[in-house]
Specification:
Helices cover 78% and strands 0% of the residues. The protein has 8 helices and no strands. Helix 1 packs antiparallel against helix 3. The chain is rod-shaped and about 115 Å long. The protein starts with 12 loop residues before the first helix and ends with a helix.
């Protein structure tokens, strides 16, 4: 028995239109969903970037305040060294504490600005969110390059202060005793210091070298302060 071949069913125009409409609807829906997702991601990224910039700005302001205090302390320490070495008259009213004078002579004043925010951003890979290359350069200049400039010579300076203390302990114990004696006034203490420096070339040489290191550190800190101001300027123009 011979069977007739079955003719394929051809879709009607209405069917084709319906399929095209459904495909278009699915395509537009997926595209819209993808677009909304990307927009949402971009918005979240902008919010996160602005939050990081605000935190960095706050820390930079704190660093600036801290650096100004250290700069002023260094200027006073340098003035003390200059006055002692040149046998200038020193006002005991300016140096009211023998302890502060001793600290300036025998202890190294560390430079430790607040950097917790930046370190946290580095640890969480937050820098990738920042789009400004200029901001990244400014951050590296402040937190790395110019910060390391301040640390140059720190170990040598610490050793010099330790050696100075050893010389004083061995050859001029009166300085230490006068420093801890409540009956010795600040002026008397300064006079004892100047007399020891005048009579002992070893002390004078050690303090002269220390003075050079202090001036170098002051210059580095002043450069660091300028870097803080530059960073604040970049942060103020970067925020979205």
């Amino acid at each position: 028995m011979k069977t007739e071949p079955i003719s394929p069913v051809r879709p009607t125009k209405n069917t084709i239109k319906k399929l095209l409409f459904e495909f278009l609807a699915i395509f537009l829906g997926v595209s819209a969903s993808f677009g909304l997702s990307e927009f949402s991601k971009k918005q979240n990224s902008v919010k996160e970037e602005n939050s990081i910039i605000a935190d960095l700005k706050n820390e930079a302001q704190n660093i600036g305040d801290y650096t100004k205090i250290i700069e002023q302390n260094l200027k006073e320490e340098i003035q003390l060294y200059v006055s002692l070495l040149e046998s200038n008259e020193i006002s005991s009213q300016k140096y009211t504490s023998k302890t502060n004078i001793e600290y300036s002579l025998f202890n190294y004043q560390a430079f430790s600005p607040p950097t917790d925010t930046y370190q946290s951003i580095i640890g969480s890979d937050g820098l990738r969110i920042l789009r400004s290359n200029q901001l990244k350069i400014s951050l590296n200049t402040l937190y790395s390059r110019n910060y390391n400039r301040i640390l140059l010579g720190a170990d040598d300076e610490k050793q010099l202060k330790s050696k100075l203390l050893m010389v004083v302990l061995e050859k001029h114990p009166l300085i230490i005793n006068a420093g801890s004696n409540p009956n010795t006034s600040t002026k008397e203490y300064l006079d004892i210091l100047q007399e020891a420096i005048y009579s002992d070339q070893q002390i004078k040489a050690a303090m002269t070298i220390q003075l050079k290191y202090l001036k170098q550190r002051l210059a580095a800190i002043q450069l660091y302060q300028l870097t803080v101001e530059d960073l604040l300027g970049v942060l103020n123009t970067t925020k979205n």
